[in-house]
Design a protein that fits this description.
8-stranded mixed beta sheet, 7 helices, 26% helix
Length: 238
């Protein structure tokens, strides 16, 4: 439920919640669903429910056991703001992030409405980053919701990027990630879509991270954009 991560922009994952339901275009080929069903088939004890939303109290304390500071992607196999995740359990997760404050936590959601609804009730602190996924221009409203939160570091993941997104308001945004879809049935990302977001980040002086081209052979396709690897992080973070 917690492990070293192959995700390029983080170091480890921590999954006190697993499972989710599809909410928007980017969910069609969900990697977490594929993985959860594979783990269920392998009789992994934490995936007996497959991809149904499930909380795992026994996983909560794991960051406290990691003594060396690390960057942790929270709920890579779920969405912390899913309606089926009890608010009390969310508070328990935040309590652990406070106690294990030597780590840096990255939370990513597509459910920005509930994020805003709970914002004032959540004990944000500087080591907790909050991000939203925006896969097409239809979901730009999630960025507006993100701006309303009290989190110190706000980021956007344009992954999987499924269409052109122009005139993005990047005010108050600290970091941008762009990536193509990977795995079976992956939908193609056009180079000009990624380059345009990069250029908007350069103009707005927002750090830009290009994660991958994706496709069915993610490793082969690599992560160079215009012959350069873009691995910028929020200012002051290395």
């Amino acid at each position: 439920m917690a492990q070293i991560s192959k995700i390029e922009w983080t170091e480890s994952t921590w999954n006190p919640v697993t499972g989710c339901t599809k909410i928007s275009t980017g969910c069609k080929n969900c990697y977490a669903e594929r993985m959860a069903l594979r783990l269920k088939a392998a009789s992994s004890p934490n995936y007996t429910n497959g991809f149904r939303v499930t909380v795992h109290p026994h996983v909560l304390q794991i960051p406290l056991r990691w003594k060396q500071p690390r960057t942790i992607f929270v709920n890579s196999m779920s969405d912390i703001f899913h309606r089926d995740v009890p608010f009390d359990f969310i508070l328990n997760m935040f309590d652990v992030m406070h106690k294990a404050s030597h780590h840096r936590y990255q939370i990513l959601t597509k459910r920005s409405k509930r994020m805003v609804e709970l914002n004032s009730k959540l004990p944000w602190q500087p080591n907790i980053w909050m991000g939203v996924t925006v896969e097409t221009a239809k979901y730009l409203f999630r960025i507006e919701h993100l701006r309303q939160t009290n989190t110190a570091v706000k980021f956007i993941s344009f992954e999987p990027l499924l269409g052109p997104i122009s005139n993005i308001d990047l005010s108050g945004i600290d970091w941008v990630i762009v990536g193509g879809e990977s795995g079976p049935g992956a939908r193609a990302m056009k180079p000009e879509w990624a380059a345009d977001i990069r250029d908007q980040c350069i103009t707005a002086d927002v750090p830009f991270f290009f994660k991958q081209w994706g496709g069915t052979n993610k490793k082969k396709n690599g992560r160079k954009l215009d012959d350069k690897i873009w691995s910028q992080m929020p200012l002051g973070i290395h």
